[in-house]
Amino acid sequence: MANNLPELVAINEELGDSFDGLITRCEVYKQVLLKRKHDIVEKINSQVIGPNSNIVKTLSEVQQERLSIVSLKIEVEQLKLKYARFKKETESIRTVFQKLIEDLKYKCNRMTYFTCLQCIASKSNKMRTDLMSKRDIEAVKSYNILCELSLAMSAAPSKHLVSYITRVINYWHSILEKYYSEDMEITLKQMNWPFTISEITDNAKLNNFKQQFQRLANMLIKVQLPKNDFSEINEQLQTSPLLEHYSHVTVPIIMLIVPFRKRFFYHFTGKKQTNKPDKPEWFLSRVLSWIRDYRTFVVDWLGPVYVENGKRAVDSQYDFIIGLLQLVVVKLDSDLSHFQLEDVVFSHIVDETLAFEHELRKVYGYPIDYPSVTEVLTQAQIFFKWINMERKYAHIKMDEIIQNKEQWKILVYDSQYCMTVCADSFLTLLNTMSDRYSILRQPRHK
Using an 8 Å Cβ cutoff, are 232 and 181 in contact? Predict the structure, then answer.
């Protein structure tokens, strides 16, 4: 009854409240309902029955599509029979052609193999002749062709050929690099590198060496190994797996850093008075001063060479910084490992390392995705110690804040809010800790 409530309301409104003439009104209302029923039936029939009905049209289209599918199936069966007959008739021909193709492929591979050997021998002989005739630019061009050949053949199935190309490239790389490195060493000595700040500003003397320096730097970059492998040059620095990220520094930068490396290890290793574990700021500030004093020179002199070799001029500055960071990484790794049990020294080294990283990024624009000295801090054993130290000192600081009655004095008060010294100190502590971990590269470390 509840479901038919709207219909009952409509009937009551139609018939009214009076009993006079009720039968007549019922008969009239019945005729109205019959008329509505008839109209509805007619409308349905017009859509379902008759030549123009939608259902008839749909059924007709379905029948036509069914006939089309049957026709296509017959055509497919006929094509399959034709293909089977054709395959049987051409089987002998296909066998002959398959053998010819395999034979052609074998001969092409042999021809490619011997062509590569001939190219390697030809370019090697040409490099030898060019170097003897002092045509070093031509020798470098031949070397680059061999590198391109090695890259193209790297995925080839001829493993012995690939190995042979690699050995030849390594052989000529060592010769060419030694050839230009010796000249670069002479040039750097003539320039009195690393020179003082006053000598940097005295462009008249240095400019006499600029062209020669850039030519040698350009050649050293061009003769680098295809995979940019400087492991042989960096083998003295490979004392930590952390330095694997620093191996892409170009040879000219490595040669510029050699005297800095000697000075660094002389002053900050062994029993020198300048080597104090509780004074990490001494060697960190020294590295920052080298970056500050020489980065402009590096960009001015090596930047154009980098651009010529498809890099950015600023990459020369970043390479120079990376080369110096190698020294810092080795030193920090050694000091942090030896002083994990001395909380004061360990904490001070961490603080100075973070300050060093902040200055690199804010002052010198060192990119966040480049190798970072914070990788030393995020080694498992060091990182665990660091987290415990942060928690320890944070708890001590919080206890000092909460227990000091002076901290509960009102610092700011107005109609909208009230702040105590305690709240301000607590927020300062949180912001300080956030700044410390914000420079870490990995989200899981943060």
Answer: no
- Rounded Cα distance, 428 and 434, in Å: 10
CB 147 within 8 A of CB 172: no
Report the predicted TM-score, pTM, of the whole model to 2 decimal places.
0.70
Residue 153 has pLDDT above 60, yes or no: yes
Dist CA 195 CA 28 (whole Å): 118
b/e string for 68-92 if b means 16 or more Cβ within 10 A? eeeeeeeeeeeeeeeeeeeeeeeee
**Dihedral of CA 82/87/90/94: which sign?**
positive
pLDDT at position 187, please? 92
Contact 48, 55 (CB under 8 A): yes
| Token code pair at residue 171 | 């052989």
DSSP secondary structure of 299-327: HHHHHHHHHHTTS-THHHHHHHHHHHHHH
Mean pLDDT of the chain: 84
φ, ψ dihedrals at 271, nearest 5°: -105, 25
Rounded mean pLDDT, 61-86: 89
Instruction: Please give the share of the chain, as a percent, with pLDDT higher than 70.
Output: 88
